[in-house]
Amino acid sequence: MPWSNQGGGGGGGGPWGSGGGGGKSPWGSNPQTPGGKPPDLEEMLRRGQDRLRGVLPGNMGGKGIALAALAAIALWGFSGFFRVEPDELGVVLRFGKEVREVQPGLNYHLPYPIETALTPKALRVNKIDIGMRISDDVRRGSTVRDVPEESLMLTGDENIVDVDFSVLWKVKPTGVGDYLFNIQNPEGTVKAVAESAMREVVGRSDIQPILTGARQTIENAVHELMQKTLDNYGAGIVIQQVQLQKVDPPQQVIDAFRDVQAARADLERAVNEAQTYANRVVPEARGKVAQISQAAEGYKSQTVAEATGQSARFNQIYEQYKKAPDVTRERMYLETMERVLGGADKVIIDAGANGSGGVVPYLPLNELARPAPTRGQGAKP
Question: Which CATH architecture is the domain 126-249 placed in?
Fold first, then answer.
């Protein structure tokens, strides 16, 4: 029977799928007679009953035919059950037009040819490698083969760079219909868009940032450009991540580029060392300058204060001197002599009343008040 040719899975082609048989209707006859008129439904049912009688063994009568018809209808109804795997999403088509999307699990659609279901792997994250091919070998493990026709790209400063990268992508949760009907070859489309976006981004950049510190910038730029292009296509695809695997100069000049990189590294190291030395010496010099400046300011303040104090003292003495010059002069003389003779050895000579001088006995009270030196300090035994 015609409904047994289509299961619960996806149908192909038009609304009748591949089980309809070319340009025929589900009942096996042409949709229109040669004259352009629709077929007679009663005639078609009669022919179907005749064929059914020829298939069934023996003569079951009208009741048997009815039971067989009911069984066929039941089987036809049960053929609408279909299963969606955990990494898939189901799209139900009614006469070839998308009507709804279903989640993973057991689902049902009207039996073929009314409705069919497509189950793309819309929840799986796919990976595409560009510029390289990874092959798994049981003996040698994973091996990477370079594809130069995909990886060699021209930079903005007219250098050639070898770029290998990978793209992780999946179907948008709300764009399964776009994924199925707007693009014919999803993987090929993603690969072509990725290679084109990478060539455009590399073509706008110089080779030196590409080889050194601009990897994250390039990945983000390629990611945004790919997503924008795919959205313009209505592809129903979301780019998860762009990963740069290898960014090198061409094999023929890679040694020269490595020498240049080594020289640049030495230059950066020397600059960093000089900067470190400058960062250490300059603060020390500034600290010494600040210390000398503060000491000078302190000495200045001290000298000015002392001079101001002496000037004030002198002015005060001068005021008193003006009031009593003789007394002040004698007092100044005595204070001066006290300072001069205070620490000197003294010998007092009395001239005497009659002019004959002599030595006046002197009791050195200060010497008596001093402690006697010990033997260890050089005292004589």
Answer: 2-Layer Sandwich (3.30)
